[in-house]
Amino acid sequence: MLSLIFLFSFLITPINSLNILVYSPAFAASHSNFLGKLADTLTERGHNVTYLMPVMEIGKRDECIGVKLTKDLVIVEAGEEMLSQKTSGTSSGEVMEVFWKSEMDSTNSRDMFKWFSSDMKMGCRNFHSRRDIFHEMKSRNFDMAILEPISVCGLGFAKALGIEKIILASSCTFFDSVLNYIGEPLDFSYVPSLYSVTGEVMSMAERYENWIVTKEINIAIEDMYDDEMKSYREFLGEDVPDWRDLLPTASVFFVNSNPFLDFPRQVLQKTVPIGGISVNIDWIREQKLSSDWVEILEKREKNVLISFGSMVKSTNMPKKWRNGLLEAIQLMPNVTFIWKYESDDTSFASHLQNLHFSKWVPQTALLNDVRLNAFLSHGGLGSTMELAYSGKPAVMIPVFADQTRNARMLERHGGIIYMHKSSMEDADSMKKAFEDILFNENYKKNALKLADILTNQPYSPKENVIKYTEFVGEHGPFPDTDPYGRRLNYFQKTFLDIYAVFALFYVTVAIVSIVILRKIYSKLSIRKYFSLKSKSTKKTD
């Protein structure tokens, strides 16, 4: 008995509870779920966590409550001014419908980003104007704050509260717009940017597009940041620093990336990968399907799940693409297809006996079931992580934003087939992709190998979140981790100033040498001329 008590006392690590603010603006479920998972992880650890959720996109309020264990939830509702402005504006649903039909590249990226920046600026102003919320948060004396730098609204708020220990957390693999300001390098020659449509091997034109699309989006983001800074200075005080000075003060930068999955790139010491934090593999393996789903999976030997996520709806898919996909499904009567579809109006596919529609699917449980053979996914990072950990082969058809990068990221491991969204119009191409992913064992073998690596990696994302958060809480902030390199200009960073000095030196030496040689040659020529002339005169005499 005493030995058991000793064992448990050894296993239970004593902690000092930290008072933590997690700032999570409500605009997209994937971002909220990521930040909610961080909050719940720290709550489970025994810390006091406040989940502060200002509503940025009115229609997304309910689906963006990303916490389950954290009970201290503070929602900042949309005010009258925000409601009146939003009524006359464009909804995110309408924008998402546009993404089905359009490509996001350097020619239109700024325009396509406007809907997001408009929502964030309105929501930010509404949030900052709530003095009651500010005073309530001020009274809680937070030790530290965790926030996502997709906006600087919360960053200025945390500084005004007097919080010095900051952790940035990216629900994407990284944010291009932030890296330059924290001093982290990004090499566009081989690292796909967040909105890249290529892998790591790029042609000259692709490298240029990889760079220029990031530049265009960063201009739009920086404009949004500046507007948000005006907001927090107006309501919280003119002395709140510029966002450019606040970003590099973060002690740690959590990124939803995994070094065994993502494209290799250079990072700072304070950049900590926590990719897969939202994937609780032990919990997933315990999930059991209901009898209804079991019945569907047992109808045929092969089963495929189709889902395009929660932001871009299948109901808005162009009809010619939908028809092409339906035709491919019809050509494979021995395979059951389960399609997450947001409408009850599915009469267009009533003739297909091997297609099952559902407004909601138990995605994690299905991916864990051996009877599901493949997944057709849009490539959202949450689904991409679940897919990678599950070991299921997939066809990935990205629609917008970072989804193409996520698909390319998995493609390099050999477990998925990447296809452009317009490929769905071609039934034969879709049929071939389904046949390859279902019957070519190499895809399954590679997917299982990646899953094995991720499951058995030497550290877990959850451990990283807990250890680094507690380390910052107890010993932070860490101003010495701010690299001096971010203060260098382009010429200093790239050694162009040194190359220029060497080039000037060599050019000077070359010019001086040429001048000297010309003078020597000139003198020799003159001497030779007079020598010949002298000999000629003597002969004449």
UniProtKB/TrEMBL annotation:
Q: Which family does it belong to?
A: Belongs to the UDP-glycosyltransferase family.
Q: How does it sit in the membrane?
A: Single-pass membrane protein
Question: Could you tell me which CDD domains the record lists for this protein?
Answer: GT1_Gtf-like (cd03784)
Which organism's genome codes for this protein?
Caenorhabditis remanei
Print the keywords alphabetically: Glycosyltransferase, Membrane, Signal, Transferase, Transmembrane, Transmembrane helix
Q: What is this protein called?
A: glucuronosyltransferase
SUPFAM superfamilies with a match to the protein in the record:
UDP-Glycosyltransferase/glycogen phosphorylase (SSF53756)
Question: One short Pfam family name for this protein?
Answer: UDPGT
- Main subcellular location of this protein, as a coarse class: membrane
Q: What is its EC number?
A: 2.4.1.17
| Sequence intervals crossing the membrane | 498-517
- Chemical reaction(s) catalysed: glucuronate acceptor + UDP-alpha-D-glucuronate = acceptor beta-D-glucuronoside + UDP + H(+)
Record's subcellular location: Membrane
Question: Superkingdom, according to UniProt?
Answer: Eukaryota
Give the signal peptide range.
1-17
